[in-house]
Amino acid sequence: MATMGFIRPDKRDFLQKLIKLLKRRTSITIHELLHDGSRFAVVLSVKGKNAKDKRGFPNLSDFSLSINDSPYIGGYGGTYTNEKYKYLYEFDLEENLPDEFKLKVEVGMDGIGDKWAFELPVKKAGKSYYQVVPHKTASNGRLG
Question: What domain of life (predicted)?
Fold first, then answer.
């Protein structure tokens, strides 16, 4: 996923492996999520009947987040990853997120009345990431 903007440091403790839910023979799996202070991203897959739209993206009619029980209001975009069936959703951070929080993800799909609901604890990634600062240069991870 380095082509998607993720930096893979030597340690993989910055990504959190998550969970899978099955409803009506369709599964949604949240494979990984990342919160590093400058971005928040979720990698998921949808498998089952009518799981994809005509373009091949997940056939999701509703995708909402809550952070510590407060609705997330902001934009997001999705794209394919280089792994089959996996999609990357990156969320615009208009406000700083806490270092630790409870994330609730609700996902709806066309043709299925029930929503998939995930509740997960999230921790900010450690010092493995560097935040980009305009007009600064970096050498070996140190801004100068």
Answer: Bacteria
pLDDT at 70: 92
Longest pairwise C-alpha distance within the chain = 54
Residue 103: partners with Cβ closer than 8 Å, 6 or more residues away: 33, 65, 66, 67, 118, 119, 120, 121, 122
Q: Summarize pLDDT for 84-99 with one digit per residue, the tens.
A: 778 888 888 777 888 8
Task: Give the CATH number for residue 123.
Answer: 2.60.40.1630
Model confidence, pTM: 0.67
Domain that holds residue 96: 12-128
In which residue ranges of the chain is pLDDT below 50?
Answer: 1-17, 129-133, 135, 140, 142-144
| Residue 89 lies inside a defined structural domain of this protein | yes
Beta bridge partners of 22: 27
Residue 3, CA distances (Å) to 43, 88, 126, 128 in order: 14, 11, 21, 17
| Residue 136 maps to a domain | no
